[in-house]
């Protein structure tokens, strides 16, 4: 069963008004394939977990539209030119970063999204594990191919963080996500999102960036491993309702496309104010643990290069390039 046939049928079912049915014949004409191919596509969709009702003389409809983050669900909300126009969707992968890295070698275009319902070896910064519960979160990697020198790659973590915060705020105005420099998004002090930017580069040019975004969306407390329960949260726990993951993916793609284009054209200066507005770090007293030392002070700003500025007790301002910070 070709992925596109199945997706065409799914798109047609998703587009139906509530309570309406579509006949096998109508589907065959709309998708330009035979009735037998339609029947096979329906069977495959059922095997994938879609609940399809089939009524004699009426046809088919989705009994319940499952909360999947597949191409058909995301496409219903997508408003971009590049990001998300190609989507590789999996029920389970080791890590979307690994799949994305293979796809780069196969010339995957700029804006390709790799997304999975579950990851068995999701990874975070500093080789930490990333808990990726099945069907509960957004586990995705966006492949970008900006024409930039390698030293500008880390800024994409900042760009992605602003994109994710503003996408969340635009869809769910009651929640208050904040960036914890450089790559976390917290709500009420607990982590909901982590961002991991990896790079494939030649000596002087970026070949591709793999912007990995992990968002806890629909977990409840008991879905998190015990050691994370006091420090992690989900959008559902904060918003008080189950959220549409596909709609959020599409909104993130929209913000990411806008902000990454601004970054490539004008540099970080255009996004600096947006970043500072979305940040929960600026103005706070923090402890920064770098590879060499532990520094305490007030986070006073971020440079055009994305370096955090820390004012120490003696008044000196130090640039922090990479660190674990505690607020
Ligand atoms: C962190 O907070 O340390 C970053 C976590 C990044 C997790 C995402 S989930 C999608 C992508 N695939 C991975 O294996 N990691 C990133």
Automatic annotation (TrEMBL):
DNA-binding region, residue range(s): 24-43
Residue ranges constituting the BPL/LPL catalytic domain according to the UniProt record: 72-264
One Gene Ontology cellular component annotation held by this UniProt entry: cytoplasm
Domain of life: Bacteria
Gene Ontology BP terms: protein lipoylation; regulation of DNA-templated transcription
Known catalytic reactions: biotin + L-lysyl-[protein] + ATP = N(6)-biotinyl-L-lysyl-[protein] + AMP + diphosphate + H(+)
Gene3D superfamilies attached to this UniProt entry: 2.30.30.100, Bira Bifunctional Protein, Domain 2, Winged helix-like DNA-binding domain superfamily/Winged helix DNA-binding domain
Molecular function GO terms recorded: ATP binding; biotin--[biotin carboxyl-carrier protein] ligase activity; DNA binding; transferase activity
Matching InterPro entries: aa-tRNA-synth_II/BPL/LPL, Bifunct_BirA, Biotin_CoA_COase_ligase, BPL_C, BPL_LPL_catalytic, HTH_11, Transcriptional_repressor_C, WH-like_DNA-bd_sf
Residue numbers binding biotin: 119, 123-125, 191
Top-level EC class: ligase
EC number: 6.3.4.15
Entry keywords, A to Z: ATP-binding, Biotin, DNA-binding, Ligase, Nucleotide-binding, Repressor, Transcription, Transcription regulation
PANTHER family: BIOTIN PROTEIN LIGASE (PTHR12835), BIOTIN--PROTEIN LIGASE (PTHR12835:SF5)
Entry similarity comment: Belongs to the biotin--protein ligase family.
Function: Acts both as a biotin--[acetyl-CoA-carboxylase] ligase and a repressor.
Name of this protein: Bifunctional ligase/repressor BirA
Organism annotation: Caryophanon tenue
